[in-house]
Amino acid sequence: LFRKLHQFIFNKISHLHSIDLSHNELPSVSPYVFSDCAYLTSLNLSHNHISQLFHDSLAKCPLLRRIDLSNNRLSSLADALSQASAVRKLDVSRNRLELLQWDELPPRLEHLMADSNIITLLGAAIKSKVRTASLRGNRIEQLSADQVPDSIETLDLSANRLQHVAPATFAAKSALRSLDLSDNRLTQLPEESLIADGVHSIDASLRGNPLRCSCELHWIKKPEVVKRKVNVVGMSETLCTHPVTGKVLALDKVDSKDLLCEYSQVCEPDCVCCQFGNCDCKAVCPSGCACFRDALFETNVVRCENLTEADMKAFAPSSVPISATHVYLSGLSIPVLRSHSFLGRPRLEHLHINASGIRGIQPKAFNTLPKLKLLDLSENAIVRLSGDEFHKTSAVSHLFLNGNRLRTIERGLTEKLSSLTTVSG
């Protein structure tokens, strides 16, 4: 096993095209070791103990195209490769690199492999000409445009710790064709973080990320984006977690209405009453509740569960946003649902009021809810329903009353709810 290489050791055999010194115990590469190897095209130094590359160790190797330094102990490249001006392919995988400085790489490098290091940060890639880069299995946490070469065609950042990809990161990467972001820590990925200005679409892998089914993923349901700009490979294996139900859904099966963003208050585009309180196009989430909306403002979910005493004092059913489509009220204290508690909510489709101690419901409590299809009043203390509780709310097809104390359901109920197909109680 070689443990040391002396300077100018290869001078007298200068016609060497390829040198393989892999699987030795070399601790470093001294200056001028490969000097004047004018015909050298390939150098393999993998599987050694190299922790240092000295400046000028690769000087005067004008034809050297490939260097393999994988499986060593390098913590830095410093300036050791700057004179390897002809190198096109470099492998520094399975070393101890913490910072990847693109300007420390050979100036004409096109193919970089730096897998399984401990890289946490990428430097500026302003002058880099790298076309393919594999950085799999490092510790990179965030990515922005200046950290990626404009020349990049294939980029593998899988199995890192990515949590954030900045907007326009790939906008100027017009040659990019393949992007692997699988097995990272991404919870969201807006369209502007991924789209590039190239003619060809990008094949992007997002598998193995803890993605939320967020409205910022809405672009995956837009055919013009998916077909022309981004092709998400393995959609059936790429999962997101529904922010309301907690269900895990595959991206190829997820519906646009399931891609939701949480809000405290939100105005629809072109809303004219945005500076005021609740109105048809502005939604304010009640204190202590969780509210979600989709990208197109067609789905609006309001969830109020087990409110604190202070939040409960400020809460009233009428404070639920007018644009709500799905409302879940549970574990509240509402002994009486008063008249017009739910008045004029033209988009409301599902209404759940459970385990909230309801004993009585006043006439017209459910007033002008033309799209309401499901009403769940289970686990309360309701004794009687007459039908007077409903006004212009005839689309209800599912009514759940189980877990109450019902003694009387009058005929007027079915007359007012003429679309009923399912009743449980």
TrEMBL record:
GO cellular component terms listed in the entry, alphabetical order: plasma membrane
Keywords (A to Z) from UniProt: Leucine-rich repeat, Repeat, Signal
Keyword Signal: yes
Entries under InterPro entries matching the protein: Leu-rich_rpt (IPR001611), Leu-rich_rpt_typical-subtyp (IPR003591), LRR_dom_sf (IPR032675), LRR_TM_domain-containing (IPR050541)
Signal as UniProt keyword: yes
Protein name: Leucine Rich repeat-containing domain protein
Lineage: Eukaryota, Metazoa, Ecdysozoa, Nematoda, Chromadorea
